[in-house]
Amino acid sequence: MTHRLPLRRARFCALGLVLLLVLLLSAPILAKGDPLPATARRHWWDLDRAHRCGSLWCSRVLTPHTPLAPFGPRITLAVIPGAGEGSQQAAARVEARSSAVATTLGKLSRALGKHLDASPPAADGVPAGFWLDRRDKSRHPLTPSLRIGVKNRTPVIYLPADPTLKRPQVTLITLTEPDSLANDLDLETLAEQWKGLLEGTLSEGLWGASFNRSYPWGRSLAALVTLGLGVLGTCLCTLRLQGLYRRAREVRADLSRQQEAAKVTAEDSGETLRACQRLERQLRRTGLLVKLLQVLRIAVVVMALILALSLFPTTRLAAAFLMQQSIGLPVIWLAMVLLEGGLTWSVVRRLNRWAVDAQALNPTSLRPRMRLETNLRVLKGSIAAATSLLGAYLTLLLFGIQPQILAGAGIVAVAMGFLARSLVEDLISGIRILATDRFAIGDSIVINGHAGLVEAMNLVQTQLRGGEGEVVTIPNGMIRDSINRSKDWSRVNFEVDIAWDSDLQQACVLLQQVASALAEDPLWKDQILEPPQLLGVERLEQSGVRLKLWIKTQPLRQWAVAREFRHRLKPAFDAAGIAPEVPQQLLRRG
């Protein structure tokens, strides 16, 4: 687990960097396309950016004191694209309208706040314990009353002039027919609704100014407490994660010991398989808990940041944006975690059932365990990669970025096409390798002239560990022919040369006796599958006679069995006086 944790963090960091790069590069790319007018003046993170509402273009009016209830009424302005007017121009026009209204509201709210500061302390009428009441507040006593009038035969909402405050008449919103269509209300009803929303916005601004005057350090202290609770929650999640990491390391060590023991002996292969499956289930449960806790830790940090930012009017809209995205992002990635867990559980369940049936048919075979381990690694990695890509795609859609627009951008399209071609070829070859069981993790194979043990593999590439410790990585698409030296079983192909004057019959008997004794040895009999087979004289040469013997062994045990056999044969030949071949050369005189 210690060496996989940095790799997992690096994978998620790389995915985050790719998403950030795409988001940063998307603005100039999207700005070139007419179908994406939301970037006409606003960025994708602006809550008041223009958007389609039927045949109209709409934009919300937002200020730091605007109520942001998801299903409550809101002020949404709209325009109809004029003849010959492009989407960019229409979007810019409606955004200019909403920006003008928000600017006017902001100036008016600041002016009212200054008037509140200049008034006596009792003018705001704040009772004790008022700020702890979470119910909707009534109108602030200093909230001005707005009026609805008509200007150029069009309804307007305005603030009357106040000679005592030396305040001129201020027009806030001019209502239009597109506004009525977008909000599905007639102009009179819509004007009354918007008048109440505007007065509520001004009242919220005045209540905020009253709080600042009563508690100058209140917002800062509340932000510190919120961030402190966020840090505490993050620390608790981190401590729990560390415990899960330790548990995963222990389970993985037990699993590794079980797998190593299974390679040495074929006894109780079914029981060993069940033990490995039990440990694999523990690892999967631990991995799922780790991912859920990671999502929870990120959610705690984001929520603490949102609450802290929402306490200050200058950062409240940023908090609203984070809140809007924080609802979608955790849902997306939590769904990806659950989807990955569900798919992995289904795949593992089917593979375990197959492995148990295959082991029952051949109790001494190690192949079901090797195929199970290989298929689990490959398929779990493929499921994780697929769900991560799906989550990234949905994240782009959540941020309002169309991936097909990015794919059509010059060098990006060329790079994606080139990578997709080679990737598809590698994937098809990887699927074919798994389906036909050409090799598995732990097999000794030869590919393209490279020999070694299969250390890791997935649907894209295969890694071999050579005899000198070197690692060779081969894309699956480049694998044409492969030699598997350990599938199902292996064989000792033993050859020995003896001198011409040695007793041939005695040498054959000794070969058979030593091999049979090795096969009956309790330490070695589990590794030898069948009685040794003496083939006899393989070749007659000038220097001697070559004898050949076969010993069928468990996969990958042929080298250990061959070394032990040679170690036992040498003293037996010496005791019987059987000499090795002697190079001879016949010289003739001319």
Give the low-confidence spans. 1-7, 17-40
Question: What class would the helix/strand composition place it in?
Answer: alpha+beta
Overall pLDDT metric: 79
N-to-C SSE string, H for helix and E for strand: HEEEHEEEHHHHHHHHEEEEEEHEEH
Strand content: 5-15%
| Lateral strand order in the biggest sheet | 10-9-8-7-11
Q: What coarse outline follows from CA principal-axis ratios? A: elongated
Topology, number of strands? 14
**Largest sheet properties:** 5 strands, antiparallel
- Number of self-contained structural domains: 4
Q: If helices are DSSP runs of H or I spanning 4 or more residues, what is the number of helices?
A: 12
Helix content: 55-70%
Integer-rounded radius of gyration: 39 Å
Alpha carbon gap, first and last residue: 77 Å
Q: If you had to describe this structure to a student in words, what would you say it looks like?
A:
With 590 residues, the chain is an alpha+beta fold. A hairpin with a 2-residue loop joins β1 and β2. Strands 10-9-8-7-11 form a 5-stranded antiparallel β-sheet. The chain has a 3-stranded antiparallel β-sheet with strand order 1-2-3, with helices on both faces. Strands 4-5-6 form a 3-stranded antiparallel β-sheet. It has helices at residues 4-31, 87-118, 177-183, 187-214, 218-264, 269-310, 316-361, 367-398, 403-407, 410-436, 504-520, 558-576, and strands spanning 51-53, 56-60, 76-79, 147-151, 154-159, 170-174, 444-447, 450-457, 461-465, 471-475, 482-484, 490-498, 533-540, 545-553. The chain folds into 4 domains: 36-126 and 137-216, no CATH class; 219-407, no CATH class; 424-488, Roll (SH3 type barrels); 490-576, Alpha-Beta Plaits (2-Layer Sandwich), CATH 3.30.70.100.
